[in-house]
Amino acid sequence: MDKDLLWKFRFSLARSPRSLTKFLKCVTWSDPVEAKQAVEKLLPLWGQVGVDDALELLGPGFGNHGVRAFAVRRLEGADDDELLLYLLQLVQALKFEDTDSGLSQFLIDRSVANAVLGTSFHWYLMIECDARGAVGKMYAKVAFRFMSKLAEVGWIFDTADETEGGTAQRDVLRRQGELVEALSARAKEIRASKDSRSKRIEKFRHYVADPKHGLSPLVAPLPLPLNASVSITTLVAEKSTVFKSNLVPLLLWFETEGEDYPIIFKNGDDLRQDQLVIQLFTLMDRLLRKENLDLRLSPYSVLATSTTEGMIQFVPSKSLAAIMAEFGSLQNYLRREHADDGALGSFGIDAGVMDTFVRSCGG
Q: If DSSP states are collapsed to H, E and C, what string results for 279-327?
């Protein structure tokens, strides 16, 4: 009954962009006449729809080629930053491509034109290539097409004034892969070791400091797989260490062309769920900011490089218990670290810091 009602008022529904998916679900796709009318006459009436709506049309619930092609055309209007927010889901949507809607080619074309987008696309594809059967083969084909296109076009780096050749960009991805392989081998060796933690740290730092391994310094600056907008130059041996936890993750302290960028490299843990959760927090923050609600969130970066390992941005911090033990109260700590004697309304604490605390923690 509800589906019949929606179909009856199908022309009126086009006035509401958010009604598109509801309309499409009421279409009897097994009826050629009805399906043709829906795709050729009614679908164009919706005009521009949001990226989130386009993403839903690329999910398993919509198999019609015309609908999926419509969604891809709508994605073309998204800028690279917005596309990056949804890239993880868009790569997953390739699994539902029974017919070629152009999604894979769209992602390839956009990824070869932007280094940050392209790096994430490459690593998202690599982890899916390990899947068994037809799915893994499909992702391998997309990865091959991406690399082939990259060799033809190359990337334009935001930090460069000229277009670097495709060969150079493929070399960047190769070097990233070699870095991950080297870290993976070292992490596995440390996990298997029966040495004490202090001995593990000593051996690890010695490995990093040895020039023959090309880590301290790196042969050339390298965009970090975790965040390709960050170009790392050296892995600092004396700051890098090994954590106490059961999986014995590595703390890697990279020098960059700007601020230092520490990361955690974990082996023996599937970080894909962590990656998805952080991506959803980042997306939620963007949507809230559009509604003028800034919660001062700063999501850290996560990248699964395989089903058993990956990288996490390390955020130096102190626990609340440690702060209370040392300073007696959180207010004393903030006043010590971010003092502003003229800020009477914020207890002598910098007003911006106080506002961030209230928005992110105190609300």
A: HHHHHHHHHHHHCCCCCCCCCCCEEEEECCEEEEECCCCCCHHHHHHHH
Among 119, 153, 187, the domain-final residue is 153
- The CATH number of whichever domain residue 50 belongs to comes to 1.25.40.70
User: Residue 23's closest CA among 80, 85, 59, 67?
Assistant: 67
Residues 51 and 129 in one domain: yes
* Total domains in the fold of the chain: 3
Whether residue 39 is found in the same domain as residue 133: yes
Stated pTM of the model: 0.86
CB 214 within 8 A of CB 207: no
Q: Same domain for 39 and 104?
A: yes
Q: Where is the domain boundary, 112, 128, 153?
A: 153
pLDDT at 163: 46
Q: Check whether residue 147 and residue 183 sit in a common domain.
A: no
The SS3 call for residue 230 is: strand
The distance from CA 343 to its chain's CA centroid, rounded to whole angstroms, is 38
- Could you give the residue ranges of the DSSP H alpha helices within 58-165? 65-75, 80-93, 103-112, 115-129, 133-153
Q: Are 93 and 59 in contact (CB under 8 A)?
A: yes
> Are 87 and 111 contacting, i.e. CB atoms less than 8 angstroms apart?
no
Dihedral of alpha carbons 301, 173, 242, 211, sign: negative
Three-state secondary structure call for residue 232 = strand
Kindly list the averaged pLDDT for each block of 10 residues, start to end, along the chain of length 363. Answer: 67 75 84 89 82 88 90 91 93 87 93 92 95 92 93 59 61 95 95 93 96 93 95 96 92 92 95 93 87 85 96 87 81 78 68 74 58
